[in-house]
Design brief:
alpha/beta; 11 helices
Length: 278
Amino acid sequence: MSIAKVNGVDLYYEVHGEGEPLVLISGYTQDHTSWAAMLPVFAKKYRTIVLDNRGAGQTVCPDGPFTIEDMADDVSGLLDTLNIKKAHIIGISMGGIIAQALAIRHPEKVKGLVLCSTGSKGSPRSKFILGTLAEELATGKIDHEFYYKMVFPMLFSNNVFANRDMFKMIMSRTLASKINPNNVLRQRQAIDVLDLTALLGSIKAPTLVVHGNEDILFPIGYGKELATGIPNAKLVVLEGGNHMAYAEMADKVVPAVMGFLASVDGNATITPTPQIKH
């Protein structure tokens, strides 16, 4: 548990395990604990680094707006602090957008790129719904519990809602790490003004795109657009997966990701393959 001073930010991060460096970038409003279930698996093989993005967890940043590019530069700065020249990068949702920006702005630092439940830009639906909720939360018109009750149906599959104990556990953990309302809005605004679509072709790192075909926030077309726009990217489609498919279907996602990273580490040629459907 450490703090790196990068780009005017006190960036909280943790390092687990040994081996080739691997950075896990969390999604919108989430801190490093969002990777808790997968972290032990990754740390068995990789020197795995988790961090709190600007506006989340224990990272402290100046007041005022910030951008996705700022958050990508924070990750780059963290790698410099740790004397890491090149690392594998995995990003979920907003973390996937940050990962794309990192690969575009600092291509020399990205060895392999995994993009989960994300797109090159926010969808109009997510901009409207999440933007409205963020504004209502920031102005005190709603509280955190109501905010997440409205957001959860866009994140999880029916399986979570059919299991009341699971739902209560997820809600309890989420509320325990609640984000400052103003930072919810600042992160949302950072996502909503960015569009990396025209720059996807400049990403040189071997890339794996993982996407649920029932994702509401980033419909499957966004994942396909990434796989088409990034040269030689591979696409894994999770049948029945919603936005949090990377966690709900970890038994399918982790082997696919570990296999992909191993192929990159072995200098194997990454070629387009048919969609892998589960």
